[in-house]
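Q: What does the predicted 3D structure of Amylo-alpha-1,6-glucosidase look like?
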Amino acid sequence: MIEIRYGSQVCGELTSAASREWLVPDGLGGFAMGTVGGLRTRRYHGLLVVPGETPASRRVGLVSLDPAVLLPSGARVRLGAHEWVSGDVDPRGFELLERFDLADGLPRWRWRVGDVVIERELAMLPGRSCVAVVHRLVSGGPVELELAAACTWRDAHGERRGDGPALRMDPVDGGAVIEEAYRLSGPGWSPQGHWWRGVYHREEAARGLHPEEDLWYAGQFRDTLHRPGDTLSVLAWATNLEQEPPPGPQVVAAARHRNRQVVAAARPADAVRATLALAADAFVVRTAAGPDVVAGYPWFGAWSRDTMISYEGLFLRTGRADLGRELLRSYAATLSEGMLANTADTGRVEYNTVDGTLWFLHAVSRHVTVTGDTDLGDELLPALRAVVDAHVAGTRYGIAVDPADGLLTCGAPGAALTWMDARVYGVPVTPRHGKPVEVNALWINGVAGIAELAELAGQDADGLHRLHERAVKAFRDRFPTPAGWLHDVVDAPAPAYPLGGAAHHDDDLLRPNQLLAWSLPFAPMEPDVEALGHLGAGLLTPLGPRSLSPDCPGFLSRHRGGPAERDTAYHQGTVWPWLIGPYADAVRRAGLPIDDLFIGLEAHLSEYGLGSVSETADGTAPHTATGCPFQAWSVAELLRVRR
């Protein structure tokens, strides 16, 4: 894997150390997460974040273990880091960091206090909500080491304040059970029990959200490290509280061994691919309902569109085809009226996308093509044919094949059905009602893929071929613009008319959605070098394509500010790294070189979410990363096309 290592110049400077984040997942949707410098900058940061019934219904438990070294001289040196509403950062343990490493996906810190060097490693027990934090004396000593346990128990999206009830602490051997929800265990436990008030999260403030919370100081662990190699380990775990996990060093060793196996199973050709293979592993989780995909950390759960766009990269490029098969079968069972369920982060099952179902058709087709698993194709074929029939007849939200031209149309008042689905105060920013270009490329691709599966099963596919051919002809007639690229939407309601009005217009804003018209396996258009030249010039950045060209009206250069400001900019110029997948496919199919296309994204692996790829970035230089630091489709698409 690529080397991710920082010395004191990065670790000791607060802005740089606090803007680089690490993630250790538990395989269930929970995680440990923080920054290189140890400063918690988000409400989501913690050492034990516990998944609920769905990956999105997480709760924060153990927040931090703040080390303090007691030297033989009597001096007490604190190695933690907190920011307070007063503006103070205290303690400032990051100033004593001489190195941070991300090794085999696991973070490692190394503090130097004169000749005393303390190292910390952290890992989660795969498949269990359990974290082990191991401290080791590297040189110097003897020293005493204290670990102050700061705790909470709250929804990951909220805060807990000290004006409410104290956290319940029940004593157990070697530690305590907090709120009957999770257990702390380690040597020399001394319970305390009072609030640390006024902790400040700078990233929440930057996102226009409430940035303050209070933490419960539950107590401290303490032990003497006599000689180099001595360790002090603390475990924290939820569920099965009576079942104590293995010792901390064993948890770390097991996690490291597993991560190496994950990388080996992907058969990486180089260090970047190895890094991406391990990054992909974070998003594939086991839930009570079976395998699923977390769309992004730290705040997203499972979303069907994200899952299906990510499918080939996360499953077929990493040696997980069997698990992917199980996932596709599970998702197929959610089909209703020809639409795939979109499991919302709220826990409700909704049917509210026009493209999620079409991406599902693509995922099934790719699975059968790549693996040769025609048994799955045969099994799912009746459901896939029913999807086509439902779209031809018409289904929810005005989604239907237009009998006039065979293209797929969609739209309903207040709905945002495509992947550009941001809303501000309930109003879609980019409603894209009518016939969106990528939706119709996916429709054409999906029908052709089902026809291929039907023929493999020995079934008649003539009706599918006729449907496909008619849509392709209409696509080629309707979508090209005089400017040299493709319309983003045709037959869109004219601005002066409400949805369903008599007048329509064709939207020719330069957006990346048209890339699917050239990049999909059964794309409706042959690669157009001139059109791709326009897209490259107007949209391409080091981290992937923008969602809107700077030359277009409505372009917004920064994805910053409060929720309304960020959502307004979300698809109006913000960079989306996942789009590097269709861009690279289209360019490759046009016979153009792509050797240097991934350089910026490869460098990005050590810039923001360490070892991973962010959700979004600003539309103008320096294209600072925004959104989730760890995003499934961003990783999956880079992994898929970088070959």
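A (community wiki): The structure tokens above were generated from the sequence. The longest strand covers residues 212-225. Residues 541 and 600 are 8 Å apart (CA to CA).
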